[in-house]
Amino acid sequence: MHQWTTHSPEETMNFSEQMAVYLQPGDVLTLSGDLGAGKTIFTKGLAKGLGIREMVNSPTFTIVKEYHSGRLPLYHMDVYRISDDEDIGLEDYFEQDGVAVVEWAENIPSWLPDDVLSVVIERVNDHERIITCTANGSRSERINEEISKHERTSH
Ligand code: ADP
Ligand code: MG
Fold first, then answer.
1. Per-residue pLDDT tens for 45-65?
2. Is the dihedral of CA 57, 43, 89, 26 positive or negative?
3. 125 lines ligand 1 (CB under 6 A)
4. What pTM does this model have?
5. Where is the protein localized (predicted)?
6. Which CATH number applies to 2-153: 3.20.20.70, 3.40.50.300, 3.90.25.10, 3.90.1150.10?
7. What pLDDT, in 10s, does the model give residues 64-83?
8. Where are the domains of the chain?
9. Measured in angstroms, how far is the CA atom of residue 125 from the centroid of ligand 2?
10. DSSP character for 82?
């Protein structure tokens, strides 16, 4: 488990932008945290780091948005309105060659692969967020190790 504190939306975006460098095809990130915590901001940084040129917005109403203009495809999901007993076919995305990012992943535990990087964002106050990254297997552990090395050397 690794923890980071950010003090602005820009800092959160910088963090996830750096993380994007280490992502490989098939990686899955789950994003948890209250409404307004910064899950979509985090995803915007990730998209930037992947070199995606399109505008990334919250897919709350469409559930999934795909972006194909970067180094890897990005599948951005928001399952706020979905429950675990609905089969909406999301598991297909986890087997493709892109990176899947799932906002409100706690709503669909049985559809997720085991090895996900779990990212929890907690709101401390208007500007401060605590980001906790927990690995659940070797694939997500690699991302966590890489980003922690990077952060240590950049400070
Ligand atoms: P979520 O997707 O979790 O509902 P959003 O990313 O849409 O949240 O919104 C996060 C809000 O919090 C934005 O209005 C953003 O400007 C604000 N914010 C303030 N400080 C931070 C920070 N350190 N990191 C991320 N967002 C922040
Ligand atoms: Mg959101």
1. 999 999 999 999 988 778 999
2. positive
3. no
4. 0.94
5. Cytoplasm
6. 3.40.50.300
7. 999 999 999 999 999 999 99
8. 2-153
9. 18
10. -
